[in-house]
Amino acid sequence: MSASAAKAGAILLAAGSSRRMGANKLTADLDGRPLILHVAEAIRAAGLPPPIVVTGHDPQAIEQALAGRDCRFVHAADHAEGLSRSLAAGIAAVPDDWGAAMICLGDMPSIPAAVLRSLADEAGRERVIVPVHGGRRGNPVIWGRSYFPRLMAIRGDKGARGLIDALGDAVTFMACDTPAVLIDADTPDALAALRANFAKASSSDRRP
């Protein structure tokens, strides 16, 4: 990160109940490891500080999936009220030396560490950075500290997309050449596709 950029850290949202999946998607097996562990390890490999992991539904399972990893767990007691409450819990826990927070979703395990690093390198206290691929907005989004009060004021089962729309030209859209910033594991079919992609990548790595 350049000297002029604010120190950025990651908030890893892991509070959802996985209603569309029918089981806890974040602890599902993906290439021999819990799905959420892939996200946590990418954050570590990107050189970011230990992430703030926001739990809600089934917190013990999330903590077990990340056992032995350097992270800070924060429980969103009001997580059932929606995504906004998990986001607020994470923002409230950000340490003073973070100038920006990268909001990582626990069900997006294929984003390379290099992409997280590139986004973090552009972070600043007054900046909002959104990855884009093929004209579509993706995740994770980086929020400068100056926007934290507005994030914490969001209510309901929604994230910060509406705030991004309202900010207009204040938002930086950063082109990414990987579709991983668009891919989550929100349904059984999506998880099956991720497993197939990871298996293909593992097979390629084993070739002489």
Spell out the blueprint of helices and strands.
Blueprint: E1 8-14, E2 29-30, E3 33-34, H1 35-45, E4 52-55, H2 59-65, E5 72-75, H3 83-92, E6 100-105, H4 113-121, E7 128-133, E8 136-137, E9 141-144, H5 148-152, H6 161-167, E10 171-175, H7 188-206
Parallel strand pairs: 1-4, 1-6, 4-5, 7-10
Antiparallel strand pairs: 2-3, 6-9, 7-8, 7-9
Helix pairs in contact: 1-4
Largest sheet: 8 strands, mixed
Contiguous helical run count: 7
Order of helices and strands: EEEHEHEHEHEEEHHEH
What share of residues is helical?
A: 25-40%
Classify the beta-strand content into a percent band: 15-25%
What quaternary form is this? single chain
N-C termini distance: 35 Å
Shape verdict: globular
* Gyration radius, in Å: 16 Å
* Mean of residue pLDDT values: 90
Segments where pLDDT lies below 50 for 5+ residues?
1-5
How many DSSP E strands? 10
| Category by helix and strand content | alpha/beta
